[in-house]
Design a protein that fits this description.
The chain has 378 residues and is an alpha+beta fold. Among the domains are: 67 residues, no CATH class; 93 residues, Cytochrome Bc1 Complex, Chain D, domain 2 (Orthogonal Bundle). The protein is built from 7 helices and 14 strands. The strands form 4 sheets. A 5-stranded mixed sheet has the order 3-2-1-5-8, with helices on one face. A 5-stranded mixed sheet has the order 4-10-9-6-7. A hairpin with a 2-residue loop joins β1 and β2. α6 crosses α7. The relative contact order is 0.14.
């Protein structure tokens, strides 16, 4: 039997495209800190010995300063500071500008678990399966308090703030199993809010997708909410009697508002328009839309955003590049083969029954038999 090692590495394994950049910046900072610490401490000891008092009441020599010395100790720290700034700016730019061709996955944080939702409908709790060598974009929100999604092996982390979307992206370079943490104190069981990221070879990932298919895609879930459950179609469906703003083709464009301002129609704008429709009124329309705050969950918001994005033909983050051409769907105990045309591959996850209660999943510290917090008014 193989003996397990108790060795704890000083740094986590490098397993993402920009992990080496983060480590290089940190080692550069450590090197500079050690160099100047040794230099200053050695200088202190040298000057203590060199200029110690040799005679009682002896007067020291007058020193009028040196322009060369003052210029040197001003220019050198400036150059070092600028190299640190440029290094940090490059790493930040690379980490926080997700590529347009990234496969998009949605993450919902709550006390004390991670609910991961793939674009093609697959759902996970405290686990994330991704293919190696593919750009992955996570669009994240939280149902309760502030969380922080952190994957040390990828050298990336991002706060998840209530009431808004934040994004994080990475490209895993090594197949394996990596720790996932919440890096922001979020309550009693914060230490148990962890999980695993499984980086898989393409064939293994395709097999995993085909064995974990969902009965409803995000776009289908959003369409059901839009047309029937919430009644959005009565105002936004188009036609001569349309009273609400046009939604077809709006995502990714500039929307003109009352007063002459313009705003980018992104996920955050759609979310705000659902929860606080009076905040930004589209030019030419009356503020007649009611608020849906407290009536829809975060997962339902994700599905609505997915459907509205699909009205613009937006397929960013589609999993068609990584999924198999056919998928086994377990429906009613039957194994059915779904053709690519019958599957809608959008970027967000559908409404799920998972999470209606605090399912323990793979998190042993998740509370049992306790209703999930909702936005319903008391």
């Amino acid at each position: 039997m193989q003996q397990q090692s108790n060795y704890i590495p000083l740094f986590p394994e490098q397993a993402s495209e920009f992990a080496w950049q983060v480590d290089a910046l940190y080692f550069y900072l450590i090197l500079i800190s050690v160099f100047f610490t040794v230099l200053i401490v050695a200088g202190i000891f040298y000057f203590v010995v060199r200029y110690r008092e040799r005679g009682r009441f002896e007067n020291g020599a007058e020193i009028h300063g040196s322009m060369m010395l003052e210029t040197t100790w001003s220019i050198i720290p400036f150059i070092i500071s600028m190299t640190i700034f440029l290094g940090g700016a490059i790493v930040y730019y690379n980490q926080y500008r997700p590529p347009k061709d990234a496969m998009e996955i949605y993450v919902v944080g709550k006390q004390w678990m991670w609910k991961v939702q793939h674009g093609s409908g697959q759902r996970e709790i405290n686990e994330l399966h991704v293919p190696v060598g593919h750009k992955i974009k996570l669009t994240m929100t939280t149902e309760d308090v502030l969380h922080d999604f952190s994957i040390p092996a990828f050298r990336t982390k991002m706060d998840i703030v209530p009431g808004r979307y934040t994004t994080l992206w990475f490209e895993a370079t090594k197949a394996g199993k990596y720790h996932l943490f919440c890096a922001e104190y979020c309550g009693l069981n914060h230490s148990g809010m962890g999980g695993w990221v499984y980086v898989m070879e393409q064939r293994d990932f395709d097999n995993w997708l085909s064995g974990n298919s969902s009965n409803q895609t995000p776009v289908e879930a959003g369409k059901e909410l839009f047309e029937t459950k919430l009644g959005c179609a009565s105002c936004h469906a188009g036609g001569p009697n349309q009273r609400g703003a046009k939604l077809e083709g709006v995502f990714g464009t500039q929307v003109k508002l009352m007063g002459g301002q313009t705003v980018a129609a992104d996920e955050e704008y759609i979310r705000e328009s659902i929860l606080n429709p009076g905040a930004k009124i589209v030019e030419g329309y009356q503020p007649i839309m009611p608020t849906f705050k407290g009536q829809v969950s975060e997962e339902q918001l994700i599905s609505l955003v997915a459907y509205i994005k699909s009205l613009s033909g937006n397929n960013a983050g589609s999993t068609t590049t990584t999924t198999s051409t056919s998928t086994n769907s377990n429906s009613g105990g039957r194994n059915e083969v779904m053709s690519p045309a019958s599957r809608q591959t959008n970027t967000v996850a559908p409404i799920t029954d998972r999470g209606q209660t605090n399912t323990q999943g793979s998190n042993p510290n998740a509370p049992r038999n306790r209703n999930e917090p909702t936005n319903q008014p008391r």
